[in-house]
Amino acid sequence: MLPGPIYIYECPNCGNLLQKFSFISGNTFGAKMYSDGKCIAPMLPKRLILTKCKKCNNIFWLNKLKEIGTVEFDDYKNPMRKNADLIESLKIDGCFKAIDTGIAENEQEEFFIRQLIWRLYNDRVRKGENQFIGVDDEIMWRENCYKLISLLDSADLDQRIMIAELKRNSGDFDGCLEILKTIDDNRLNWIKEELIHECKIKNKNVIKLD
């Protein structure tokens, strides 16, 4: 994984500087694919497009901003870089706040945030932690799952299998199996069989796909 230039952005609310690392190349060696569609690849950097300012906590789409400058990766003394905070991914509470503030201007953007919430909850399982912190946390998660399903198009096979997985995660094993029965595609059948197995053993948790 080779580093590229560092892009400098400005918070649209307070003008605080933020820096985003870039990479010239990456690969999927050692990557792990999960049933919620998340791919964890040590040699492939994450694509961050939603973040918040560390100074004023304003949440914004990074891809809607134009960088105000670039800095070479090895230019450690550049004042613009020294004064810029490193961008970070939103956590679960930040994602819910993003939705509440109406930052999603269309269904595609709402889908992005709600899918991110789903995967962040699953990250807790991937780390061996409890998925929920109290009853209210689980209620928020479940509501997000239902709304995410409503944003998906069952006519699209990739989205249909995501609906099935969301139902399995919610404990609706029969609903998951009913959807899986309608999928017959060489590209997806291996995933389908793994999800059928997990339904039979009543496992709701995200799984690593083999």
Structure description:
The chain has 2 domains: 2-86, no CATH class; 100-200, Serine Threonine Protein Phosphatase 5, Tetratricopeptide repeat. The chain is 39% helix and 16% strand. It contains 7 helices and 8 strands, in the order βββββββαβαααααα. The protein has helices spanning 79-82, 92-100, 107-126, 135-150, 157-169, 173-180, 189-200, and strands at residues 2-10, 17-25, 32-33, 39-40, 50-52, 59-61, 69-71, 85-86. A 4-stranded mixed sheet has the order 7-1-2-8. Strands 3-4 form a two-stranded antiparallel ribbon. The model has no long low-confidence stretch (mean pLDDT 94).
Name some characteristics of this structure:
7 helices; two-stranded antiparallel ribbon; single chain; globular; 4-stranded mixed beta sheet; 2 domains; Serine Threonine Protein Phosphatase 5, Tetratricopeptide repeat; 210 residues
Task: Summarize the model shown.
The chain contains 7 helices and 8 strands. The chain has helices at residues 79-82, 92-100, 107-126, 135-150, 157-169, 173-180, 189-200, and strands spanning 2-10, 17-25, 32-33, 39-40, 50-52, 59-61, 69-71, 85-86. Strand 5 and strand 6 (59-61) form a beta hairpin.
Task: Furnish the topology, listing elements before pairings.
Blueprint: E1 2-10, E2 17-25, E3 32-33, E4 39-40, E5 50-52, E6 59-61, E7 69-71, H1 79-82, E8 85-86, H2 92-100, H3 107-126, H4 135-150, H5 157-169, H6 173-180, H7 189-200
Parallel strand pairs: 2-8
Antiparallel strand pairs: 1-2, 1-7, 3-4, 5-6
* Average residue pLDDT: 94
**CATH architect. name of the largest domain:** Alpha Horseshoe
What is the number of independent domains?
2
CATH class designation of the largest domain: Mainly Alpha
The overall strand count is: 8
The N- and C-terminal alpha carbons lie at a distance of 25 Å
Uncertain segments are none
Helix share of residues? 25-40%
Quaternary structure state of the chains depicted? single chain
Which strand order do you get reading across the main beta sheet? 7-1-2-8
Q: SSE string, helix = H, strand = E?
A: EEEEEEEHEHHHHHH
CATH topology name of the largest domain: Serine Threonine Protein Phosphatase 5, Tetratricopeptide repeat
Helical stretch tally? 7
Shape: globular
Strand content: 15-25%
CA radius of gyration? 19 Å
Major sheet size, sense and barrel closure: 4 strands, mixed
Decide which structural class fits the backbone. alpha+beta
